[in-house]
Amino acid sequence: MIEHLTKYKKAITDFLTEYLRRQQRVIFEGTRFGHDVAERLLTFSLQGKMIRGSLVYIGAGVYGHADDDPALLRMAAVMELLQSFLLIHDDIMDRDRLRRGAPSIYAQYDELGREEGIRDHLHFGEAMGICTGDVAIFLATGLIADESIPDEHRRSLLSAVSCEISRVGLAQMGDVYHGVSPAEIAEEDVINVYRLKTGRYTFSLPLCCGAILAGAPEEELEALGRIGEGLGIVFQIKDDDIGLFGTTEGIGKTVGSDISEDKKTLHRIELFRRASETDRAALEPLFGARAIGTGQVDDVLEAMRRYGVDTYVQERMQQFADHTADMIRSDLRLVTERGRQMLESLLEYNLTRSQ
């Protein structure tokens, strides 16, 4: 499956490079930060795996649509620009100074402010990061107006993008609230954030955009959207697991950042549900601590293993994977057999990936 997910990376990369270079000449020319934003946004976008863009092709391909349709490339670029917009803003909210193994956008501008002697260089960096993310989302929506997008599909695509990005915003608000609230939350609340923030946006949206361009009817789009939710839940649970038990080199950001940000993951919820009062008292101060050392991260991971949290999370992830597999086999009427196998391979990739 990783071959399918990277197959279109070069085409998407080339298109984004040409598109942003063109915008430098058409839109950004003559502004103080036009060239700077375009270059930083391009570098940031090209650091990704282009998975969401590739999923547009997969969404069309499961219905037998040819992958040489230029509209697919445009929509793939839309997905990657939307991803950049969300990650840039996400890093500001999470105070992550590292993304994809390099400084996040707001951290880059923070450093620029420091170099130029700006008094509140952190605020400058955050404000400039917000603006860069805003530029990315409007460049993305502008691409949907591209002449290669068929008129009969443009409204459906714009509606899908608008709806899902709005859902992401609301899910992010819930995620932010859960991260700062002292109240414990239920597993159902965590899964709902995963469903909307990762499932609908990362999988349902690009798959359905591809399917729209392939002419799939509404009932197929609804079924594909539900499958995307399942794919995303599995992906996010695995992502949380890698973020805790992986390496900085492998995940591209600091190991243990979910602990210092007090992210309400399945791992955290289950740990505090199972921990003794003594262990809970020792562990609680580590979640949300701005400065957490490697030894303290190791203490949290050791407790998770000792209480069987890692095993429980793996079992829950498998349950969601099994349910999603059932939907792939039973809920789609018009996909090709090869398309069904492709979705099953995507599910298996989400379940077993290591980074």
Characterize the main sheet. 2 strands, antiparallel
Task: Domain count, please report it.
Answer: 1
Shape: flat
Total helical elements? 17
Low-confidence stretches: none
Percentage of residues in strands: under 5%
> What is the correct CATH architecture?
Orthogonal Bundle
Structural class: mainly alpha
Q: Radius of gyration over alpha carbons?
A: 21 Å
Name the average pLDDT.
91
The CATH superfamily title: Farnesyl Diphosphate Synthase
SSE order, as H and E?
HHHHHEEHHHHHHHHHHHH
The level-1 CATH class: Mainly Alpha
**What is the tally of beta strands?**
2
Instruction: Enter the CATH topology name.
Output: Farnesyl Diphosphate Synthase
Q: Give me the side-by-side strand order of the main sheet.
A: 1-2
User: How much helix, percentage-wise, in residues?
Assistant: over 70%
Please identify the oligomeric state. single chain
N- to C-terminal distance: 14 Å
In short:
The chain is mainly alpha-helical and 355 residues long. It has helices spanning 2-7, 9-26, 34-46, 51-61, 70-94, 105-115, 121-143, 151-180, 187-213, 218-245, 248-251, 257-260, 266-274, 277-283, 294-306, 309-330, 337-352; strands at residues 98-99, 102-103.
Structure description:
The protein has 355 residues and is mainly α. The protein has one domain (2-352): Farnesyl Diphosphate Synthase, CATH 1.10.600. Helix content is 75%, strand content 1%. It contains 17 helices and 2 strands. Strands 1-2 form a two-stranded antiparallel ribbon. Strand 1 and strand 2 (102-103) form a beta hairpin. Helix 2 (9-26) runs antiparallel to helix 3 (34-46), helix 5 packs antiparallel against helix 9 and helix 16 runs antiparallel to helix 17 (337-352). The longest helix is centred in the middle third of the chain and has 30 residues, at 151-180. The protein is flat. The model has no long low-confidence stretch (mean pLDDT 91).
